[in-house]
Each structure stands twice: as C-alpha cells, then as structure tokens.
Amino acid sequence: MKKLKNQKKYKLICSWLLISGFVSFACFGDVIETKYFKINLCDNCSPSSFAEKINATALFRFDALSKNGSDINSVIREGIDSLFLEVCDALDIKIQSYRGTIVVFPDIVEVSKIASGDSQIIEAGLPSIYVPSHNTIYISFNDATAGMLAHEMAHAVISTYFVVAPPPKVQEILAGYVEYSVRKKMGVLPQK
To answer: Structural domain of residue 168, as residue ranges?
Structure first.
C-alpha cells in the first residue's frame, strides 16, 4: 500500500515538473525522434503496442514503405511523420520546419491532470489535448488512435500557421474534419 502511494506521489511530482518545465521528461521511457516530433512514451507504454494502437503501418505513404527498416521505432517514425503530412494535406497547409512534442501518458487520468492545469483548456477528462503554450500533444496510451492523434496534430498545425488563431469553434471544426478525413482514408469510420 505504501509503495502504491509513493508511486502516485512520484507520478504527480513528475507531472507537475513536466508541466512547469523544470524537468525534461525524466519520468518517461522511450523517446522517439521523428522529423516533426519528439515522442515521449510513458514507462509502461511499449513502442510496439503504441504503433499498433495508432495503426502506424496503415499511415505510411508509398515512399515511406521503401525507406522503413524492421525496427519498431522506424515504423513509428514513418507512421507519425506520414500522419503529420496527411494532416497538412487535409488542411492545405504546408509547414516543413515544424517541431513539436507528443507525450504519451498511460491513461486519461494523467492527460486530465495536464488539461486541468492549463488555463487555455476548459474541459478535463479528455483522452488527448494539444497545449499551444507547450507546443505539445498529450495523449492517453489506453485511448490512442490515429484519428485522435490527427485531430491534435491539426490543432498544432493551426496554432503554428495562423498569426491570429481562429476562434476555438472554428479550430474544432477544422480538427474534426481532419480526423474524419484520416479515419475515412484508413477505413475506420463507424459503419451505418
């Protein structure tokens, strides 16, 4: 029981330090660098499970398939970068020099702590959020999907591209459109 309390305290302190910017992802396991993102996976999040959850191999563009090695990190790199390019295509926005961060927390509870700590985010209990002040996407490992990640990437692109950000409702409509577009392309829309 005492060990469980200490683990909870440790995670809370790590989350606080992460939000505050005092520590650079010290509480995370694997770090995967892509052309556009630095991905920080939580300690208990295996790269192969993450790749499976976001259906990384389905995200590849044809040119990425030939470059990909058998390494799971390569699969994630190619999948995430291909997804980012799909998001940019759907929005008809090209940002070649973009660099952001994706932090994969174990569950929705950890993501909610980030959401409730940012004054720009009104809702808590979200499986994923993009926080413009951190230029970071926070996503729950348990709930992760390619569509969800595309939605948050759309927020990142919109936030980076526009000098004056569109109203929140417009941003949500655009991000929703991108999510729909990616899910349709992957063939994972709900059947009627």
So the answer is: 29-186
